[in-house]
Design brief:
This protein has 372 residues and is an alpha+beta fold. Helices cover 59% and strands 12% of the residues.
Length: 372
């Protein structure tokens, strides 16, 4: 008598693809439902036995040595066959799970089931090949993460050692722009070398112009409320705070106070800002955020961690100017990090960075608040 429930479970499992009803009935006759606790060994690579497990509920960890390769969840299967050509991986329950255990000794001991033997063997080989590819991908990720860590440690160590000199240079000569540009070019070069030497393509890091029109259009729509916010904020400050009452709502000359305003210089500074907006996004988003998201272990917080950590690292590179300036660099970076994660391209986030920077610095003239 065939158990309808077991046959249903087999039909819903990946193992059932390409199997006939008679083959599923045979498998059902050799099956039993078992329960395993979290941490319980389901398959031990050191103890060979021919067994298939169909995961009815819960999940299992597939291990290579003591390192997890992948996870088998409900609807998946794991198997072990007594063949020298096929490597064995251990399998351990990640949580309390219900499995359907299939004893396949009878199937492989009889020539009557040759067709089913070939199908099961093919499934095991295909699954193991996928596991090997996943393991290679994970190894590639950890190698790349290690390389990124070395690069970052070298950069941050050099920056920390020279922080006193940089701060003194800015304090004595007021040439923070020169220092910033030098640091940005240096960081960008390091990120370029890292990307070029990594096993990933530039597109994987977000250096791509695919869908650039849609990205720019979306970035413009999302950025518009932020522009309005800064306009209202400045109006509020100069309207309700007496110390700022003499400040104009729009002041393009504020960004050029130190060198004197002229239209050619104003246009030149905007063009420089546009170029360095792209370079900064190349560092913070494609170089840091993308790399962290690609290489960090999978978790539901991986995106948040990659956005926050990349912005902390980038903001820290402004410490020679002051803590307040580093904070100013950090906060909008969170927005641009979210936008970059949404679009997976440097185009939209660079456009947003340009528009916000030009609006805030060169049109509204927020730099004049620093003078107070």
């Amino acid at each position: 008598m065939v158990s309808t429930n077991v046959i249903t479970d087999i039909r819903q499992n990946q193992l059932s693809s390409e199997l006939s009803l008679d083959e599923m009935i045979l498998i059902e006759s050799l099956s039993e439902e078992i329960s395993v606790e979290k941490g319980q060994i389901v398959i031990d690579e050191t103890h060979l036995s021919q067994t298939f497990y169909l995961v009815k509920s819960g999940s299992l960890n597939v291990l290579l040595g003591d390192k997890g390769i992948t996870v088998r969840e409900a609807g998946h299967f794991v198997g072990m066959l007594d063949l020298d050509e096929i490597p064995i991986h251990s399998v351990v329950a990640r949580e309390p799970s219900t499995l359907i255990k299939v004893n396949v000794d009878k199937i492989f001991s009889s020539s009557r089931y040759h067709s089913l033997q070939i199908k099961l063997l093919s499934k095991v080989v295909k699954q193991l090949s996928q596991d090997v590819r996943l393991h290679e991908q994970e190894t590639k990720k950890y190698y790349a993460l290690g390389t990124l860590s070395v690069y970052l440690l070298c950069i941050l160590s050099l920056y920390t050692l020279s922080l006193g000199v940089l701060s003194g240079f800015v304090a004595n000569f007021g040439a923070s722009t020169f220092v910033d540009i030098s640091l940005i070019i240096g960081f960008a070069f390091v990120m370029y070398i890292f990307m070029k030497g990594s096993p990933y393509s530039y597109k994987d890091f977000g250096v791509t112009t695919v869908n650039w029109r849609d990205d720019i259009k979306e970035a413009a729509i999302i950025t518009l409320p932020i522009l309005l916010f800064f306009l209202i904020l400045k109006w509020f400050l100069i309207t309700f705070i007496p110390a700022f009452s003499e400040i104009s709502l729009f002041n393009p000359a504020a960004a050029l106070t130190d060198i004197g305003f002229s239209y050619p210089m104003f246009v030149f500074m905007i063009l420089v800002y546009i170029v360095f907006s792209v370079i900064q996004e190349f560092i913070a988003r494609t170089g840091l955020q993308s790399a962290l998201y690609l290489f960090l272990p999978n978790s539901k917080y991986k995106l948040i961690i990659s956005i926050v950590l990349s912005n902390l690292l980038f903001a820290m590179a402004h410490s020679h100017i002051g803590t307040l300036f580093a904070l100013v660099a950090f906060l909008p970076g969170l927005f641009w990090g979210w936008l970059f994660a949404r679009q997976q391209s440097i185009v939209g986030v660079s456009f947003s960075h340009m528009i916000i920077g030009i609006w805030v610095l060169f049109i509204l003239g927020y730099t004049e608040f620093v003078q107070f």
